[in-house]
Write a structure and sequence with these properties.
single chain, 107 residues, 5 helices
Length: 107
């Protein structure tokens, strides 16, 4: 009785039928790219948005590395922190510059 899909909740249903979910996702993605067209544009936009997420998430990790309630007794090396902030600045700059190319892509 307890193994019915209604009893499993959303993630239980997804876990139980993961093969069908994967097949459905592939079919839906392929259909969208086929109907909308221009998959290269969509991939470039997705990559650029991911490029903006990287500096934000890395900044959060670097800030959290010095919060005692998060890392307890762990001491993050200063050279890794410094290099991390350099990477944050560099990837933020690259992400910002990628939007100039995106604007040209849709003109």
């Amino acid at each position: 009785m307890g193994n019915e899909p209604a009893d499993l909740g959303l993630f239980g249903v997804v876990d139980k039928y993961y093969r069908f979910w994967i097949i459905g996702f592939i079919i839906a993605s392929t259909s969208i790219l086929t109907l909308i067209g221009r998959p290269v544009r969509l991939l470039i936009v997705a990559g650029s948005l991911n490029g903006l997420i990287l500096p934000l998430s890395l900044s959060c990790v670097l800030l959290a590395a010095y919060k005692k309630e998060v890392v307890k007794d762990y001491l993050h090396p200063m050279w890794m922190t410094a290099l991390g902030w350099v990477i944050v600045v560099f990837t933020a700059w690259m992400g910002f510059n990628s939007f100039a190319g995106i604007v040209k892509l849709f003109q």
